[in-house]
Amino acid sequence: MAQQPYIVGNWKMNGSRAMLAEARAIDRGAHRVTTVQVALAPPFPLIALLAEEASAIGVGGQDCHTAIKGAHTGDVSAAMLADIGAGFVIVGHSERRRDHDETDALVREKAQAALAAGIGVIVCVGETLEERDGGHAETVVGRQVTGSLPLGDAAIEAALHGNLSIAYEPVWAIGTGRVAAVADVIAMHAAIGARVTDLLGEAGSKVRILYGGSVNGDNAAELLAAPGVTGALVGGASLAAETFLAIVGAAIKANS
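Above: the chain sequence. Below: its structure as tokens.
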């Protein structure tokens, strides 16, 4: 049975209470969707508000700490996310790796903390333009997957129940308007899938591999129809219901 596509909007550090109107419109649109899983990851202050209102979409966080609680000013634990209604968390986004010097080992710790708290995980990986131009893209991403993916029984259980995903986001395509060639996306998703199966065994085949990086209504259909692409992590285009639901619509067609 084919995996249900997973379309996730990452609002990053954007949004306000007024913007919840867009989230409500996305939620209403998702009520008509039965073949695609839809979710949003708003900034921390909006998670509880959106989780209380949303009935058709998943709601998640954009990061979490490795600890359950403690003296970590400004941080939020996975347990806290779960307590306010978040069902998943994104970890290892390239902006976190760049702005906060996050390592693969730290990303893995965060992912394992999220699974321990009972919420799903989206692990982000992706190469820089220099790494791709140097012919090292698959090596770099493979190393990130190996070092960042949670392991053990909890990870296997999460994979089997659709609660563990990987988002391949080439760093040079995030927010730039540039999109990886479909052939390159197919090759990278195949390489990631093989690495995940090596790490998690048969359960690895259940891990959805999303593509991210300037995904929009114009290019989503081609990307989501590509072999091995089982969803999208969407940035700017997820801030408005019209543009985000166009991507959801593309996923419906690709899955039909």
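The chain has a mean pLDDT of 96.
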